[in-house]
Amino acid sequence: MSSSSSVDVFRGAGVLTLLGILILRWGVSLHSYSGQKKPPMYGDYEAQRHWMEVTHNLPVKEWYFNTTNNDLLYWGLDYPPLTAYHSKLCGFIASQIDESFVALGTSRGFESYAHKLFMRWTVIFSDLLILIPSVWWYFVSRHKTSDDSSLVWIFLVLSHPGLLLIDHGHFQYNGISLGFTVAAAAAIFQNKKLLGSMLFVFALSFKQMSLYHAFPFFFYLLGDTLKGGILKGVPNLAAIAFVVLSTFALLWSPFLTEINQIKQVFVRLFPFARGVFEDKVSNVWCALNVLIKIKNLFKNEEMALMCLVSTLIVVLPSCLDILFRPNKKKFVYALINSGLTFFLFSYQVHEKSILLASIPVALALPSDPFLSMWFTTVSSFSMLPLLLKDGLLIPTVALSVFHIVATTLMVNVLASTSLKSNKSDNQNVTNFWWWAVFSLSMMGCAVLTLLTVAVKPPKHLPDLFPLLISVYSCIHFLGFLLYFNYKQFSLSGISLRQTVDEKKHK
Amino acid sequence: MFWSVVLLISCVKLLLIPAYRSTDFEVHRNWLAITHSLPVKKWYTESTSEWTLDYPPLFAWFEYFLSQIAQFFDPKMLIVTNLNYASPETILFQRLSVILADLMFAYGTRECCKYVTNSGLRKSSRWNFRWSSPSAMLQLLLLGNAGLFIVDHIHFQYNGFLYGIQLLSIAKILQGSYVAGAFWFAVLLNLKHIYAYVAPAYLVYLLRNYCFPNAPANASLKELHAHFSMKRFTELGCTVLGVFIVSFGPFLLMNEIGNVLGRLFPFKRGLSHAYWAPNFWALYNTADKFAAVAGQRYKLLNVSTNAAMTGGLVQEFEHSVLPSITPRMTFMLSLLSITPALVKLWLSPGNPLHFVRCLVLCAFGSFMFGWHVHEKAVLMLIIPLTVLAVVWRREAQIYLVLSTVGHYSLFPLLFTAFELPIKVLLLLINALYAFLNLSHLFALDKPAASWTLPLLNRTESLYLVGLLPLFLFEQVFHPALGLSDKFPFLPLMITSAYCAIGVLYCFVQYYWHFIGMSGSNHKRKTH
């Protein structure tokens, strides 16, 4: 086969991959969204629409303030400026299609076939512009050669059930901030540190939850820059600091004019008073709450301090490791560990924040396909109570099964076709004991799903099943946290390229 | 691997549950209700709903069987007077029933794949990887068929189940189990009688190959007579007749057979369906319209054509310039068009692939010239042709043109905004997969000429690429130019005429190809 035709085949298969992930997205889009036909507050769909309304109609100065035209108690804007700009852009497009989509005040709770279509398209376009190219870049740049295997990983990451369900079903734009994070990681893999830091600031400025990943980025950049000696590293570090600060300054400039504005934005971004967790979250505090009523026992301030201290203690080893032995393979695991630790231990956590751990886990698919698949499935399962409320049970089951089957099928096919397949990497896919444990875990998920759907909980315990799901998932996540920490430490500190270079020297 | 793929595709089908549903959804709900709550005697006389039961008895029993499960989802859907009832449970049940019934399609596909793998057709060391072998391609082309997704899982019907049985009967005949093949085809006929159109191929092939064993290809009548096996003939006849007796027997005993047949063959419909299927009559109708308009403008004709360009797509279609067509004429034309193929099949015994080819041509003939043909019937050509597409290069070429045009011609079935991206994505995925893999299979070492799609010639490529401007015209320019009010049916007419040209081209090419093929040697030489 000539090389040109193989490129053609690759290109064709690439388009096929793209079309495949698009049809899954559009399939989920057909389903209902959060708060559909549920006045007076509706759900995240209405929140996003309301932000479009507010940002489209009001001057920037009013966005984060409670004014006569901006009732912060009704889905007040509580994400950073980039989200607000995105809303403004979408709001403008909406106003061009139909003014009533975003009419100030009167459009509250606006729902229609055409509006749903518009909203779904905005998410698809955001994915096409940011998430999909980012993931593409991440895998193609990492594998250097454009072979089929990178397409397989791209397909599997972009068919992540949790992300599809939350963005295209429930309705949010997590793909944007996660896409920026993935792009930042991809840039760092190519030693484009300045670009990487800039992209990560974009992620931070879209969703403050991206802070879950701030430690690995900070420590990796610090460690890697200073690796060659402090004198050589400091100018580079200064350059990174400059890029970060100026990107921040640029993105946040409309709000940096008055102290009042800055203060108010931060009050909105970090709603301290909303407590340690909302609804039922699969993290440590919610699980502990089953045994001891920590919510009643401690004040919010005490709770926040406990969260801070425990998070820092748990995340510290991974951070120190990446600081002193920075390497690219470790970096992905550091992202996982930091994201997962923050989800499990930090203050004011939402169930959807598991995506911040789950997307880095998906990026680790090539080296850990089995564990990654397992984690992805459990992470979608942990959001089941929320997804059930949105009427998304069928796509949840469909996409989870799809993900498991697709991963095993494609990993097996890769293992059988690829001559240079790394045996040690795919070992645990075929290990019987791993499969037995995995099957048991999945059966647990299935039973809990069935119970939640079919059985009425006892009267004095209305939240029994959501709680069971939280605790069950939390146990999984703790186990995964241990595994991924172990995995990060067991990787040698020397980067791959260095080993190759050394071999060449010998 | 096979069942993994089936599972993956079923998951995508599950995602389509809340998609748009046509009135066929209500049709099948009504049939569930009729078979569940009425005695068998009344199945074919009940007429509360306008969607009366008009499939053969075995399909009614299939609905009866489904209704036994349906009652656990929502018993209210089983009330005959509960017209247009569509609770979430009803939707879930009906959609799930289609998805599960598709397991029959998966089974039929698997049997065909087994034949392709075991028969030694296109055996080559080139396909060391399981998933780029011809049978793996066949499996994905069939299971991922865009047309079935559109018609079954969005529009709503049970075609996958029926085509599964057809594929099974084809596979049985390919494998040499003639009686089993005949049995499954008889079952199919009693599920949906539209398959009677391809019955001549079965009849000729089974008669010639099973009832006249060992007769030489060019046998005279006398020789044939000498080889006739009464035992085999009886065996075959009893099998087919047995299925019909089980199906129609009860109605015969209850003296209901007249009502059943009256429902199965209503002759009150027009030449073309509301949206013209892309066949010969679509071109005929279009020519008639143009002639009428031209005649009016140049005052050449004195025809009352006030309805010609404004009303347009009514079912009872009276031609204004060209002679009107009667059912008898369409029947004769269909029969005439398939006769040479049947003769050829008779003269080339022992070649099961020729049977499939003739089957495709029979479906072609009835699709091109039949009375009141539905656009969905194009699947009757595409699905059997898929089996041949992975075997013979020329057939792959025709498959690529036909499947792309045929699936495109199903687009007007879905006209809602949410389903638009889905139908486009389905078609693109299907076509792209087929082009990539079939060209890989057949034209590996051949450099493609510039400006052509793989495996196709320049005209065919240009024609297929022309679907894009056609789509854009229909979606963007037609409404943008303000033609929607003046010529509301124009996009539909152009679509069916444009697609009809492609289908007609495939018909002629394929006929030519079949007639020119050698009779006996069905083993493919390595390309």
Commentary on this structure:
The complex is a heterodimer of chains A (506) and B (527). Chain A has one domain (16-36, 111-416, 438-496). In chain A, helix 4 (113-143) packs antiparallel against helix 5, helix 12 crosses helix 22 and helix 14 (300-324) packs antiparallel against helix 15 (328-345). Chain A contains 23 helices and no strands. With 506 residues, chain A is an all-alpha fold. Chain B has 527 residues and is mainly alpha-helical. Chain B has one domain (1-121, 141-268, 327-516). In chain B, helix 13 (280-297) crosses helix 22, helix 17 (393-408) packs antiparallel against helix 22 (490-516) and helix 20 (467-480) runs antiparallel to helix 22. Chain B is globular and about 70 Å long. The relative contact order of chain B is 0.10. Mean pLDDT of chain B is 89; it is low at 305-315 and 521-527. The interface between A and B is medium-sized, with 37 and 31 residues.
- SSE arrangement of chain A, N to C: HHHHHHHHHHHHHHHHHHHHHHH
Tally of DSSP β-strands of chain A: 0
Figure out the total of helices of chain A.
23
Outline of chain A, from the CA principal axes?
globular
Which structural category fits the helices and strands of chain A? mainly alpha
Strand content of chain A: under 5%
- The poorly predicted ranges of chain A are 420-426, 495-504
Q: Biggest interface pair, residues each?
A: A-B, 37 and 31 residues
N→C terminal distance of chain A = 35 Å
Share of helix of chain A, binned: over 70%
Structural class of chain B: mainly alpha
Helix-residue proportion of chain B: 55-70%
Main location (chain B): endoplasmic reticulum
Subcellular location (chain B): Endoplasmic reticulum membrane
Keywords (chain B): Endoplasmic reticulum, Glycosyltransferase, Membrane, Signal, Transferase, Transmembrane, Transmembrane helix
GO cellular component, one term (chain B): endoplasmic reticulum membrane
